[in-house]
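Standup notes, structure subgroup. Blocker cleared on the D-malate input:
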Amino acid sequence: MEINRHFLGLKESYLFATVGSKFSAYQAAHPDKKVIKLSIGDVTLPLAPAVISAMHAAVDEMSRRETFRGYGPDATCYGYPALIDSIRGHYARRGVTFEAGEIFISDGAKSDLANILDLFARENTVLVPDPVYPVYVDTNVMAGRKILYADATAENGFLPLPDEGTEADLIYLCSPNNPTGACYDRAGLKAWVDYANRRGAVILFDAAYEAFVQGELPHSIYEVEGARECAIEFCSYSKTAGFTGVRCGYTVVPKELKRGGVQLGKLWARRQSTKFNGVSYISQMGAAAVFSEAGEREIAKNLSYYRENAAVIGQMLDRLGIFYTGGKHSPYVWMKCPKGMDSWTFFDYLLENANVVGTPGCGFGKNGEGFFRLTAFGTKENTLEACRRIEDLLR
Ligand code: MLT
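Run returned:
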């Protein structure tokens, strides 16, 4: 018996697990201190009333023999029509149309971003922006794939563009980006779409933070011509509607997307029906209410609450004269560590002296070294208090 030795190429623990255990160890050693966590992007506002009513109604249905449900519908890979239709409506309002069979319901973007790799041979070369959400790198290390990096730096506005000399088969894009908050415009996305189509590559587009996009910037890669032929899009209700503990997301694989003469959507349906049993009816009905009229109105309020937190963090950094980006189209503020500290030194300094936990930038890639990420998903009170403490410490 041989284990998958590629796992040995990973860091010992997942970024957010490392941060979480450092927080827990510090809190256990200092039970009297109120440590504020602005690290993992976990939401703090409760679910919207429209979502809660839909979930209550679904629970009631599950309590009656006539309306009880077991496994979800096969034809849509376990997505109920009400949810699929609400997602189609959400896209249609931005001029993007899909058939029901192009939308797959999942338990969140993270799982699908990892599981999609089943469709691609190990020999493919992967291109990952640096810094970025660590799941893309870790899952490809586990599979033993060759990984190339596209540098995202202050010089390119943290939005790298394709380099014709780079021979990538699978390209990850995350826009708005986690952790930098940078958001591609149409021209930027079009450059990637054209590059992918020229090469026959596939773009894995993580749109988990699309709800935070403001103004005219694209929310979906399918707002760009040619994307249906080369891109798979991953979306989540976690950050949009506070579903981190509920679990529901969706992945779009357009019919036009074919490689090796095969529709990737068919492979994905085959994969999902073999390895996945869908998302609970109750969660799906809650999710279907997110893009209803009432749901959208209520969720907009929650998004503004988090945006205000991001503004509070930004104003604190402005007063301190510290470089940062993000916070505008994203719930994350990406700041330069002060006084030339590296990311983990600043993490420890902040934890010990301000009792505030953030995420060290180097955990997102080598270009993240010397940076630090703060989330705006905390409560308003904790965000204000954390900012007050950071400002007192760094002034
Ligand atoms: C983050 O903090 O980057 C995210 O919350 C992690 C995740 O969504 O898995």
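Discussed briefly. The pocket of D-malate is lined by residues 16, 40-41, 110, 133, 178 (CB under 6 Å).
Next: hand off to the docking folks.
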